[in-house]
Specification:
Elements lengths: L6 E6 L2 H11 L4 E5 L8 E7 L2 E7 H8 L12 E5 L3 H14 L2 E8 L5 E6 L5 E6 L8
Parallel strand pairs: 1-4, 5-8
Antiparallel strand pairs: 2-3, 3-4, 6-7, 7-8
Helix pairs in contact: 1-3
Length: about 140
């Protein structure tokens, strides 16, 4: 398998709320919800970086599409790491997430590997790590 991940999809309980959080709260670019005319097709895509998108799709629709039973979420089963250029930027993004309605459950602090990071959960409980890691600084 070649590493060609192009979409990360989060199952959400309320698609409109998720779009508002990511678009209005975090400022991610999107064309909004598409596919409303299709049964189980309503989804929103957000631009993350070149050739990578974040999708939010109703968890019920994912269950329908995959044929898997909908189960309770486990917040430690998957996290998304958002790497930034400085400690100050970690604090800025954490505050932006808090204002957008995220639940900050671990304030940003120095890490054991020499970085600086904090964690929040989006309104559906998905865990994001906002991190400054001096070994993996973003290219921009």
């Amino acid at each position: 398998m070649k590493p060609r991940i192009s979409v990360l999809t989060l199952g959400v309980d309320d698609l409109e709320r998720a779009v508002a959080f990511y678009r209005d709260g975090l400022g991610l670019s999107t064309e909004g919800i598409i596919g409303k005319e299709l049964e189980h097709g309503a989804v929103a895509f957000f631009d993350l970086q070149s050739n990578l998108k974040l999708a939010v799709w109703a968890q019920d629709d994912i269950a329908h599409d995959t044929g898997l039973a909908k189960t309770a979420r486990c917040p430690t089963g998957f996290t998304i790491g958002h790497n930034v250029s400085s400690k100050a930027e970690v604090d800025e993004v954490m505050e932006q997430a808090r204002r957008a309605g995220a639940s900050v459950f671990k304030e940003a602090q120095d890490t054991f590997y020499g970085g600086y990071a904090g964690y929040f959960q989006d309104p559906d409980g998905h865990v994001w790590e906002i991190v400054w890691n001096p070994a993996f600084l973003p290219a921009d």
